[in-house]
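Why do we care about 3D structure at all? Because function follows from shape, and shape follows, mostly, from sequence. That is the central idea of this module. The next example makes it concrete: a single protein chain, its amino acid sequence, and then its structure expressed as tokens.
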Amino acid sequence: MSKLEISVGQFSDAGAKPANEDSIGLHVPDEPMLTNKGMVAVIADGMSAAADGAKASQVCVHNFLTDYFSTPDSWSVKTSALKILSALNRWLYGQGHSVYGSSTGLVSTLSALVLKSSSAHIFHVGDTRIFLLRDGDLQTITRDHRTHTGGRDFLTRAMGIELALEVDHQVVAVQPGDTFLMTTDGVHEWIPDRDIKKILIDLADDLIGACRSLAQTARRNGSNDNLTAQAFTVHALPVQDEESYFNELTALPFPPLLEAGQILDGYRVIREIHAAKRTQVYLVVDESNGEQRIMKTPSPSFSDDPLFIDLFLHEEWIGRRLNSPHIMKVIEPDRPRQCLYFIAEYIEGQTFRQWMDDNPQPSLQKFRELIGEIATGLRAFQRMEMIHQDLKPENIMVTTDGTIKIIDFGSAKVAGLSEIDTPVDKDVLLGTERYTAPEYLRGGTGDSRADIFSLGVIAYEMLTGKLPFGTVLTPRNLNRVNYQSAMQLNTELPLWMDGAVAKAVAIDPKQRYEVLSEFLHDLNKPNPDFNATQPLLQRNPLAVWRGLSIVLAILLVISLVTR
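And the structure:
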């Protein structure tokens, strides 16, 4: 396994100006944050016309560097960075008006680069620049946000100048040997690209000297601005080979099948609660405090399956980052483990499948209540930028006091983890066929709307006891099936609720709800779009075809009689 190796150079000077309003920063965190979040480099240039450009640039660099590493490691780089930049822009804008009384109180340009795994994520506002030197070729990978009017150049975008912020974002694949250069306009406006390239190549082994040389060259060429340059060269990327990756996954051995009375790491087994092909679930007692817990263990038959082990480890990783009364709580480890398992809260109750069997066609009030609680659990996943991907009644519990809890998230997709390169192909079809979103069946990827589809299928089942398309969806029948109106099977269901469920399970994800709150709203309050008279063919296709058959039979009889 190789680790990230870089060399760094920085230089910043006031140049011809009395004060330096530029700022730079770079941080390479320790593991595991380096793997989960990556390294960050930032450059900012306080606007000269601002009341306090120096403070604006310093705040931009300092806050981005600190706040980025405080965001959840389940978030993607893009989500983390854009949320930070949006909040930072609002703060600069607010402080500029309240403290300095001006729309140009605290204004700065900003360019940030996050190197995570083997990708560079670029975020850019203003006229600072990021260059990439690769194999002797220099390219500018940012675009200046400037306009030329009346013989003068003006910034068209900057941090803190407007309440709304537009950020350029792009992702660049990184190779060993790549050099990234970040400069303020006091440098790059005064040096031709060919000279920038020559300096970087000639001083490749001395990036500090290269950055200083760039600043000095710009000054000699007549630069009248601050002079700032920051560069780093990537010597090795964090890449795992299959052997090291598998060794890391199998650092803990698989436990044997456990029996009542056995003790493992201070947990005494009471009984086996559930056994499946891939996992076993046991009710255990923590002998240190007498509390009942759940112990989930992997099946020994999958001890040589890297993808399975990876998913099992991620289920614990995910569970420890979710906090909702409607999601099973995974317990933080408080003792060394001899083998692979994780501990979770014990939930007394029944699966949602059992509840549905016991309560066919519940009242609409109870239906809304339970669907709302499942949605609340799913919202906790969405806040952490996760997709459950295997929502089904068997993965939901109803506690003895009637509370909904989602209990299984081994198939969940985590945006932040998806950005980390591994030797294992994780793009496999997960989930259960009755509830799997059509986009997965077509071989595509899903977003939060895939979970809305699964929730819509569960909602339809609660109301009718059937599937919304009359059959299990497959790649072959996706283009032939039609939604079967739930009103045919549940006469108490109003038209507008049927419309809401139909939209939730639309085959095309673009036709579905984008957010859970919209689905819940339409289940509780009539949406006028669904109150239009529905064609009889959609409401009761069986009756239509029966009627047509009768009419055709009558016409046939008439035709025969009149011959």
